[in-house]
Amino acid sequence: MTSSVNHANRMKPVNRSKSIFTHLLIIIVAFVNLAPLLIVLSSSLRSPDNMTNPLNWFNEFSFKSFHTAFDRMHFPQALLNSVILTAVSVIFVVILAAMAAYPMARIRSRTSKFLYLFFLSGLVVPGQMVLIPIIQMIKDLGIPMNQYTPILMFITCSLPFSTFLYTGFIRSSVPEEMEEAAHLDGAGLFRRFWQIVFPLILPVTVSVVITQGVWIWNDYFFNMVFITKAAESPIPVAMLGFLGDQQNPAQWNVLFAACILCVIPLVAAFLFLQKYFIGGLTVGSVKG
Amino acid sequence: MTSWKKKVAGLTLASLAVASLSACGSNNNSNSEASGSPAASPSSSASASAGAGTDASKPVTLTMLLSGSKAANGPDFELDTLPKLVKEKFPNVTVEVQKLPDDQYYTAVKAKLASGEGPDFFLVFPKLANMGAIEVAKAGYAADLSDLGFWDNFSPSAKNDMSYEGKPYAVSRGMDILGAYYNKDLFAKAGITEIPKDWPSFLAASEKLKAAGVTPIAMGDKDPWVIQFGMYQLAANSVYPSDPEFDTKLQTGETHFSDAGWIKTINQYKELYDKGYVSKNSLGMASAQAMQQFVDGKAAMTFTGTWDLPGVTAKGAVDFERGFFSLPGNDAGQPVYASASTAAGYAINAKSKNLDVAKQVFEYMFDGQSPLFQAWAESNTSIPVYAGLKPNNDMFNDVLADIQSTGHAFYFSNQMWPAGVSDAMQTKFSEIIGGKKTTAEDVAKTMQSKYDELNKN
Amino acid sequence: MNRAVMKKTMYFFVLPALIFYLLFWIFPILKLFQYSVTDYNGYVQSFNYIGFDNFKTLYREEILGVSIKNTLLYTFISVILGNIIALALAFLLNANIRAKGLYRSAFYIPTLFSAIVVGFIWSYIYMPDEGLIASLLNKLGMTGLDTNFLGSYDKALYSIIAVDIWKNIGTSTIIFLAGLQTVPQDLIEAGKIDGAGRWNLVRFIKLPLLATSVTINVTLSIINGLKAFDYSYIMTNGGPGTSTNTLIFAIYKMAFTEQLFGKASALGIISFAIIIVITAVFVLTLNRREVSA
Lengths: 288, 457, 293
Description:
heterotrimer, B: about 450 residues, alpha/beta, D-Maltodextrin-Binding Protein, domain 2, five-stranded mixed sheet, disordered N terminus, C: about 290 residues, mainly alpha, 13 helices
């Protein structure tokens, strides 16, 4: 993707048989990797009572299973809930993490270093074990429990990794000189951050949006605990309803249709914004 | 997970018989009388309070958290019907319902209650079980429901099992029975002419099935709680008949799991695995998959309870007639004891801001005639213990009649254990299923040490 | 540095994030330390201080050893295998070929899935007798093989580790790939002119320059492995027996099933210690190597 690679493309005569071999190898590995998903897709396209061997690929095209799954999950509602939860959380994460990273990247002091590590260390704590004290805290603060309460946790749990990415990026890729110039022009800290630094860290913002957006979208744990009303469930919680469902034992086709419905939004986002997804991950990891 | 744990409940021998009588003896005079008079009064009191209280016009939202899965087809009683019918009766009341699988339910409801953010209505299990009435009442989370008007219509045992210090804290759905669902066609094909009435004949029947090339029993042991389904039925025969107070005595250390009764129980269940009667690879199968094997006619039996009827009667690959009997753990010549318990039911949060409204909803729901009551009764998968109601399915009639006439039944054991003991049992017993050298004594020892640890608290 | 430009008042920018972080993460974590010396059941609001009894009980019990062993095994295998496979894929995808983007997507897509979805899909794949692997083997005529993956004491843990690797390999591959693409082409050319062979190019030029990506990937997968919970929770219930009980799963079960929140907190603190020590050791070691490389 970088220019040096393209450069190489032009310089090296392509070795045909070697390239075919590479293609073949990749295709085989990719196929093995994706086979489960293809089976899932093919099964989901069968009607719920067609229980033939899943290995008979694509032997029926019916949207009946999708229909059932769609209804049972209240899909449009769940999708909307997921979009709201994820969007609101991610916006806050970006604002809070970018701001927090700014001094940590700019000031070289013990305090700054401490803060950086302090935030980063939060990454190692799993949410499952702190659940009860967290809810007690939410109660003590008088925060109501509803559909939006999980947002607090999504923001908090996203801070360690996001501040880590932002700090690294500001340190390495936003020259201090630019700020000095603005400072001489009389710009205050706030303006300097939002007008100069923030636009320059867009690549890492993309990275934060993608990495944190994906986990927030997929999280079931906090949602499951906080949400009080079935209609407020986002997609993963709606999926939970299929877990060990005794009423319709092993309706694999419906379950698979639900799985497909569940992943379609993110996969679609990925396919359309592929460049940003890959770029986002890359920026975060290489420069950080 | 399954909707199993919620059904786990307990009854004493005597009160169970009464429960069954009032549940089914619809011709009984006193019963119809009972259902006649109080039925009228709660509804009138409910409407009176709804009309009288002008504050009732201000909008109220009640939250409800339950365990279980959503109805496979059509509207779900709790998710769809209940909020609608409550709204019709009390236009200012909105009920918000969330249903989670069992395991997730426990996590969510406990975390919420512990932090004072509990839902207004939640599901409570009888006695000492996980989220049991006694525990919930002791902690002050459930509201005392003694002042509600419908108790005369419920069997006393259902009320007692949900009581703490004589006051009821939850309204049970009814009674649940554990048993073996069986495939009548496969039984006939294997030459089994009558339902096994004792342990030797059960083993013989299984042997016949196996010889006929049929998997005798399908169990989804990857969901380890299903181990309880067979175990408690055996315990009802091998532990309690000789010592009905076994579990009470456990508390004082007078009895132990290592006593002969439990060792025998565990060994009996172990025998089914040792002899290859339970589907091979059961540890890798989820309970829904085991159920599928049963409805597809690939296995002749599966152990579960009355609540699983919709799953058991789901349409599978072949059509066949289903039946239900109590797993006979008894020695030859002894009577069969069934395993039956009070089912879970709704409780009201003691700290609810709208306690009065919540109680009015209860009065309306259990008044014996309202549309909400009808819907509740129709959707009920447990055997009803409400005066005048009959079971929604007659597959259980034989077992039920037997319990009624003889009183031979005991509660589900974990009912009287601290939550966690049954898990210890499952975990250790899984080793036996997995072919390890674990013995019944090892399982009993693990159960006892977990019991000792948890009983302190 | 210009002190006037980079003033201490900048620290105000940290405040909003810090408030969130302290309130909803750090204080609750500190609460665990308090609970770890009590008999709090996570439920009834009264409890007693019982000193280090919880730790002592844990020390005596089998579950501590089992869950530590499972967690370490989980981490070790997923880190090593996951990264080796990802690195190999990255080299493969870095080859000079068409349709690279398409292939890359093929490996990346599973990382977008929710753990629940992944759990469902793989439960089917691993189902004995009728699952994907079982039917595939049947079709190939390989009957009689043991296909009881999740129900076997020997295989269950490895089976869920494989799921974890499958799910996360896309991210690691992309990060490695990015690292590979930062390797300056002239350096490679120079190496070639000096007569370096293929392997030497990889060994002495590409791998050292990949150090940053290695650090990132290994660190992330170590943390991911030590915090493993999802697949034990969704796919195996920690079973059969305790064979897929990871530390976090054991804590969860203790807290919410056995209602021993105090004891679960104690186990939580032990887990913190383990996770922090292991992560710190690795990060420090890798950082040192990265600098010297």
